[in-house]
Design goal:
Length: 323
Amino acid sequence: MKKLNLSEYVLRKIVLTTQKICITLLSFYLKQIDIDNDEKRFFRSALLKDWSTQLSQIVDLLNYRQRIVVDSTSISVNLDGVNLEVSGTGRYFKIPGTAKNANEGKAFYEFFNETCSPIDSVIDVGANVGEISLYFSKICPRARILAIEGSSENYAILKRNANNQQFPIDNLELIHRIITDHDGETEISKGRGSENSIIGEVIGSSRTETVKASTLSSVINEFNLDNSRITFIKIDIEGAGPLLATDLIRIKPKFIFFEFGFVSFELYTEVLHFFREFYTPYKVDFFRAEFELIDHDKLKLDVQPSFGNRLGELSEAMFVRHT
């Protein structure tokens, strides 16, 4: 496993092996009896209580402060009021106990509040499994929220998550679509979780699927959004963000969160010139809920060799339109 030292790896193996032995022994025993028999209710109750208590102790020892929900078919965590499946990802278990916010959407929302910006509509391009879209749906019930995800695998989890909330989601539109620079269809990789992408080098080394594609403008028109009332566009599509430059230039939302990926220098020219002219950039620390002003020089394109280094530092950023 990545980033485990030898002692951590050995300890994890011991814990997993012990658990496997316990489950194997229990499974063998249960095959010999009828666990639903009334006489076995005390045994079942004792085991469930013991294992639940041990799980709670482990969570406390690891200083994990999010609520975990376990049933016979799935495991989910509750991040600032939003239930999210953990199938296919360990990211939500990486949240430190010291985190001010667990849900990235909460960090965005608090930042908008600090700027006294009312939220009319949010477009989440690359919604993945819905962490941010669902948070805004919950906290801004009068806003319109579009959650757009291209990967069929991620979209299936997004739908399950949407149906597993304890709040109404009438203001949320779930859209299975790739957002790019044309309407039609586009290939996207499969089996890479949150890193599924339409970028050539990823497509070339992955299984793929063909999904309906649209420009951002087409989706805005389809769902009857008013450009002047689009408060926030989040773009996290694994390096394909520059393909949306033309639409971003036309819409100019007040806030743009933009993920930078590994694509050609030329692709970024238009979008970075746009950001330099109209926006102030901020580096985001989600867990601390901190937004740090970025030097505009990091967005310059005058010296190509240094662009890669600045891009690495900028891997993602919030852009606030000049008033």
